[in-house]
Design goal:
The complex is a heterodimer. By secondary structure, chain A is mostly beta strands. Chain A is built from no helices and eleven strands. In chain A, the strands form two sheets. In chain A, strands 2, 4, 5, 6, 9, 10 and 11 form a seven-stranded mixed β-sheet that branches. In chain A, strands 1-3-8-7 form a four-stranded antiparallel β-sheet, with no helix packed on it. In chain A, a hairpin with a 2-residue loop joins β7 and β8. Chain B is an all-beta fold. In chain B, the strands form two sheets. In chain B, strands 2, 4, 5, 9, 10 and 11 form a six-stranded mixed β-sheet that branches. Classes of the chains: A mainly beta, B mainly beta. Chains A and B meet through β5, β9 and β10 of A and β4, β5 and β9 of B.
Chain lengths: ~120, ~110
């Protein structure tokens, strides 16, 4: 499986500020995904980060609030903009591997970034 | 709309017991069914993936099954250990997409 590193692992932020989360993978991957896990809830897909094109956002998520960069096949960032307490969540990066004999569509996740907005 | 349901929400068992976690899904056009483990405050660890053409997958003490006709998957854990304590999540994808739809998980506690 891939090694997926996320930074920061956790942060406490003030209302109205923005924070950028980084996701680094140790191998090239075509598709990277960003998920949100609100307290006590399951994971919800925010967007698909496409290399060389704009991210594809799911219903209820917009680029102005969650801008995403994907400068190459091993790295992506997610920014949470103008944060409010409702944005307090774990944000997780996910990738699909097509090499190493893995079955198609198997997804792997980073350790997550736990944000608390005061 | 795809929905994934996991019952029970929480389960507590004594060490050594065999147990079954349940996952049901509404979309019969399932492509993959993947089981994950999540430790408190951590990311997800992939446990098993079952493709739509498969009926089950095994890894060590874990066995996952898939019944598309009834819209169900189960995760069987044999001889449970305290280290198995975690939240177990199931998620499905449709063909042509690698987007996962997750259940809310089952929080498992294995008591020594």
């Amino acid at each position: 499986s891939a090694v997926i590193s996320q930074k920061p692992s956790r942060d406490i932020c003030q209302r109205g500020t923005s924070l950028t989360i980084q996701c680094q993978v140790d191998s090239q991957v075509t598709m990277m995904f960003w998920y949100r896990q609100q307290p006590g809830q399951s994971l919800t897909l925010i967007a698909t980060a496409n290399q060389g094109s704009e991210a594809t956002y799911e219903s209820g998520f917009v680029i102005d609030k969650f801008p995403i960069s994907r400068p190459n096949l091993t790295f992506s960032t997610l920014t949470v903009s103008n944060m409010s307490p409702e944005d307090s969540s774990i944000y997780l990066c996910s990738v699909a591997l097509q090499t190493g004999g893995r079955p198609p569509g198997e997804l792997f996740f980073g350790e997550g970034s736990r944000l608390t907005v005061l | 709309k795809q929905e994934v349901t996991q019952i029970p929400a929480a389960l507590s068992v004594p060490e050594g017991e065999n147990l079954v976690l349940n996952c049901s899904f509404t979309d019969s056009a399932i492509y993959n069914l993947q089981w994950f483990r999540q430790d408190p405050g951590k990311g997800l660890t992939s446990l098993l993936l079952i493709q739509s053409s498969q009926r089950e997958q095994t890894s060590g003490r874990l066995n996952a099954s898939l019944d598309k006709s009834s819209g169900r998957s189960t995760l069987y854990i044999a001889a449970s250990q305290p280290g198995d304590s975690a939240t177990y999540l199931c998620a499905q994808t449709q063909g042509g997409s690698e987007k996962l739809v997750f259940g809310k998980g089952t929080k498992l506690t294995v008591n020594p």
